[in-house]
Amino acid sequence: MYKQKFSFILVFLMGFQVFSQNETALGKNIVKVNLAGLTFGNYQIGAERVLFKPFSVAVWYSTVPMGKAPSIYSTKYVLSIDALADLVEESEVEYNAFTAEVRVYLGKGNAKGIYFAPFYQTSKYNFKDFPFKYESDRGITDQLQDGKGAIYRDNFGLLLGIQFSIGKHFVVDAFLGPQLASATGHLTALAPNLISNDEQNSLASNLDEVFRGETDLISEIGMIVTSRTGAHVEMYPDSWIDFRGGLSLGFRF
Fold this sequence. Notes:
The protein is of the alpha+beta class. The protein contains 6 helices and 11 strands. It has helices spanning 2-24, 35-38, 75-79, 85-89, 197-212, 217-221, and strands at 29-34, 43-52, 55-68, 92-105, 113-128, 133-135, 141-143, 145-166, 170-190, 222-227, 230-252. Strand 6 (133-135) and strand 7 (141-143) form a beta hairpin.
């Protein structure tokens, strides 16, 4: 009887080991590229590590090289302010972001199937050559020079996604979810020479129109300061809700 029990336990353990090997044969590491981001010039690479069957952790790095920004990276997208879209779309923008996720898979797990993933993302937008315009004393439209600045954004959210295998080594990962975003930043530009009082008034009026739009955005976005040497815009912390999503192709090993 003892031998039978021992044999049964041995067979069970051997079977469990084979099952575990089959499950882990897929590999615990996955490297990914977000295909959706490539459409907008956003290069996103990620890595996921299976801790144990239901749980994994993932990290992402995203970058957009300095250049003319696609419309999706306008300030309308960054800060949800329509009035600033034209200003930023005439600028050059650089974007970098880091994201950390904890994934909880339903069912058998092992980084397959439907999952929930709380995440945190921190990002920075660098701007240069944005046009702070004014009416010059010569009767033509002029603009300040050396325009530069940055917007810092932090997101907390929850993704709902599905990840499935294609063969032994490839995976497809699709996800979408809401996020609470907050941002702050600053923009500064200098006058090539001292501008006149009339030119300063024109500059202040134009910036007021850009940042105010049809609503009182100045009080929402922060402080605008103009002088005969240039202008400075300080963006106070603000928060809103939007969405994060993606479609990725990965290699598992």
